[in-house]
Write a structure and sequence with these properties.
Length: 441
Amino acid sequence: MTVVQLHGKSAGRGPVSDRRSVIAALDIGSSKISCLIGETLPAKHKMPGASEQKSLKILGLGHQVSRGVRNGSVVDVDEAERAIRLSVDAAERMAQQTISEVYVNVSGGRPLSTCYTGMIAIEGNGVSPRDVDTVIAKAVAQIAPSRRTVLHLAPIQYQIDDVKGIAAPLGMHGETLAVELGVVSADTGHLRNLALAIERAHLSVTGYVIAPYAAGRSVMAEDETVLGSILIEMGGATTSIGIFHEGALVFADSIPVGGMHVTNDIARGMSTSIAHAERMKTLWGNALATSTDEREMLSVPLLGERGVDTVQKVPLAMLTSIIRPRIDEIFELVAERLNQCSVAHLGGQRVVLSGGASQLAGVAEVASLWLNRQVRLGVPQPLSGMPDAGRNPGFSVAAGLLSYGLKPERQCILPAQAAKSLIQGQQGYVRRVGRWIADSF
């Protein structure tokens, strides 16, 4: 898997740490913006002939309430810049390091997964590396320049003659070689708005990583990504879906519903403030009803009321009855997207939940009912130096971005000419739009 980079402009922020040893991740979400700074450490024990396995040590963590971001997209550059600055500053103070580049997640921008097929005739005594490069280039050539930017590329399967499902075709014999290439793209305008807010905070973008892929790098076991699993990242305003197979991301999508919608439903249904609704969801919220819910009472402060009638008593069952329909809606939409997906079967029967909204009690059980699969709650893999505040599913994406920075995927390295043509095609579209704006205004 490779990422087509959109590099931001470099900007100085004083003394900068060694880029080879320090990696920074910026998770721009709709409910919070978090920054993680990590240091790469050499392997303590290296086996002869094996590649060096580096590890990560967390140096700093900073997070702020998200502002200027809605449904994963920047809607107010000034507010987004201010929140990014505060988050990065907190992480830098804790790490005692200054950063200039960050890996950034993409949770909005209407992510789209498309499959492209390339086919060539095989000549010689078997499939050679040149044949593999040629067939991948054939598939990439079908990606027409548009308003979208390619983020991830991964071969779903190879086919030799009538034999499908081949993972490694090198050396095999046949007459024709075909590849099914999975391509994940996002709106170019969305990425450029993210880059604008980040550059105004005097940072540059090292690379963009789609949110479910970043979360999967953090919470999924290696066997889960190889055998096939579905990752559902439940954020504040969006829920992202990723399907992994043979260690690669083969499908990504998102729906514009998340944990903040549950909070807003509680605030409206109980006529209370959003802050207290969030507190109730966190402390007593449950997507599943119990036999004692009718007897247990909650005190709910009424919004805008003063005096003796400022608090009302409601049964816990009322809170559950508000939460459950929204959770049902989220997984009903997820189930619909999976039913429409041609590669959903590659995800097998395993679902991993991540993200802050997945911590709500009963969510995994409801997901299992709707998706008819085994569901577990994913927690970021332990990282040295990670503060207690970051050891929960809400920081899965940020931790996954660091993991990607430590070891980018090399599942599909594009042939040089194909990569050059793809990047030039996308840049050509941006130049045409720029010229149109300049001529029109």
